[in-house]
């Protein structure tokens, strides 16, 4: 029967099927009057399934430190209780309405247990070594199934992310590539005419340069997704003046923006710390460029100062704002619809910002409401966490 259980768990496609196989086979193999399957949820445990002569605790959630299933998971060992009235680890109020007089509980998972299997008897009974061994074998088989499901879930997420990335890249790269090609073809036609006036050619090449710059940023964003996803954010720490870094970034943005960039900058004096300058400039550039995109006719305000033992960068815009339900997900990759669908982009900028900020041991916070603009506040420790 254990072989049949192993085969059934090998083809189980979700948690409910795993628990169904385990609970029915555990009762059949031990002769218990009831079996539960319990999962760990942080500091709590939840009874997700059961097979018993009368209801137990299916669907109930308890603190792990006051539940015998939690005890088994925390201490990573099996428990045999012949009389629940004589064991202080039993929450008697939870057991009083049930038939349970005796039990055995085994953890599921070889490292940090993620679940437990409980067997219960309606009469006083001390679980035999064979019964406990059967439960432990079932726990081992269930653990393997759960690990496989976790790996499969990660793989599905990775494949979905890759698909999203390819689709987004195909869409976003097509426009600047076509623009560069058309602009350069136009420049070649002007040269073929040997016009004396170089101004039209200069204008075309300037537009091509801007398109190439946009294309470069898109490619860099894609590379960042690959690097950050695999290895985290590598930091090259050095002494940096945050005010100077902000001014340098804003000067570059003014040169590359197609429309005039209306900026108010409050970055007087020096705010010094030990950071990765390239990563910090990437944070500033993404936040300011993002604000400029949505500011419409309003100004973008950038403020740099100290907040206690932290350095602070605040970027505010007078755009349409962001609804509360979108304010968390905009920091996730491929999130594009937080303000409006009418703006392009891979939906990677704010995710990269968050990765860079958190790599320095800092935090980023958004304050916004529809119609009232948005404010992003970055706090950075003066001495970054070197990872």
What does this structure look like?
This protein has 387 residues and is an alpha+beta fold. It contains nine helices and 13 strands. It has helices at residues 2-10, 15-30, 68-75, 92-95, 129-193, 199-231, 242-256, 277-294, 349-359; strands at 34-41, 44-52, 61-63, 79-81, 102-108, 115-121, 238-241, 263-266, 272-275, 300-307, 310-317, 363-368, 374-381. The protein has a six-stranded antiparallel sheet with strand order 3-2-1-6-5-4, sandwiched between helices. A hairpin with a 2-residue loop joins strand 1 (34-41) and strand 2 (44-52). The longest helix is centred in the middle third of the chain and has 65 residues, at 129-193. Residues 337-346 have low confidence and may be disordered.
Going across the biggest sheet, name each strand in turn: 3-2-1-6-5-4
Largest sheet: 6 strands, antiparallel
**Helix count from the secondary structure assignment:** 9
Query: What is the mean predicted local confidence, pLDDT?
Result: 80
What does the secondary structure layout of this molecule look like, with pairings?
Layout: H1 2-10, H2 15-30, E1 34-41, E2 44-52, E3 61-63, H3 68-75, E4 79-81, H4 92-95, E5 102-108, E6 115-121, H5 129-193, H6 199-231, E7 238-241, H7 242-256, E8 263-266, E9 272-275, H8 277-294, E10 300-307, E11 310-317, H9 349-359, E12 363-368, E13 374-381
Parallel strand pairs: 8-10
Antiparallel strand pairs: 1-2, 1-6, 2-3, 4-5, 5-6, 7-9, 10-11, 11-13, 12-13
Helix pairs in contact: 1-2, 1-5, 2-5, 5-6, 7-8, 8-9
């Amino acid at each position: 029967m254990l072989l049949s259980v192993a085969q059934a768990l090998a083809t189980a496609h979700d948690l409910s099927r795993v628990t169904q196989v385990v609970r029915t086979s555990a009762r059949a193999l031990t002769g218990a009057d009831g079996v539960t399957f319990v999962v760990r949820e942080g500091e709590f445990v939840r009874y997700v399934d059961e097979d018993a002569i009368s209801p137990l605790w299916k669907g109930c959630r308890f603190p792990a430190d006051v539940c015998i299933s939690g005890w088994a998971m925390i201490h990573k060992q099996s428990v045999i209780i012949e009389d629940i009235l004589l064991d202080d680890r039993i929450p008697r109020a939870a057991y009083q309405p049930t038939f349970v007089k005796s039990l055995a509980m085994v953890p599921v998972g070889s490292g940090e247990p993620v679940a437990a299997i409980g067997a219960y008897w309606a009469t006083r009974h001390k679980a035999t070594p064979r019964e406990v061994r059967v439960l432990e074998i079932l726990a081992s088989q269930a653990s393997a199934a759960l690990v496989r499901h976790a790996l499969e879930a990660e793989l599905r997420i990775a494949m979905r992310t890759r698909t999203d990335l390819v689709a987004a890249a195909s869409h976003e790269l097509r426009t600047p590539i076509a623009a560069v090609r058309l602009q350069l073809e136009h420049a070649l036609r002007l040269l073929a005419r040997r016009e004396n006036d170089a101004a039209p050619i200069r204008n075309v090449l300037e537009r091509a340069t801007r398109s190439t710059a946009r294309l470069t940023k898109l490619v860099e964003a894609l590379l960042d997704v690959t690097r950050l996803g695999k290895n985290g954010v590598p930091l090259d720490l050095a002494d940096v003046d945050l005010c100077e870094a902000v001014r340098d970034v804003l000067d570059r943005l003014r040169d590359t923006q197609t429309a005039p960039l209306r900026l108010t900058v409050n970055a007087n004096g020096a705010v010094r710390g030990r950071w990765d300058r390239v990563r910090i400039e990437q944070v500033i550039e993404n936040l300011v460029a993002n604000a400029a995109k949505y500011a419409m006719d309003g100004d973008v305000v950038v403020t740099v100062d100290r907040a206690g033992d932290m350095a602070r960068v605040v970027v505010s815009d007078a755009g349409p704002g962001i609804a509360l339900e979108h304010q968390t997900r905009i920091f996730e990759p491929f999130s594009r619809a937080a303000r409006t669908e009418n703006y392009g982009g891979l939906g990677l900028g704010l995710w990269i910002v968050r990765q860079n900020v958190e790599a320095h041991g800092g935090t980023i916070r958004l304050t916004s409401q529809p119609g009232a603009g948005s404010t992003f506040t970055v706090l950075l420790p003066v001495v970054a966490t070197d990872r």
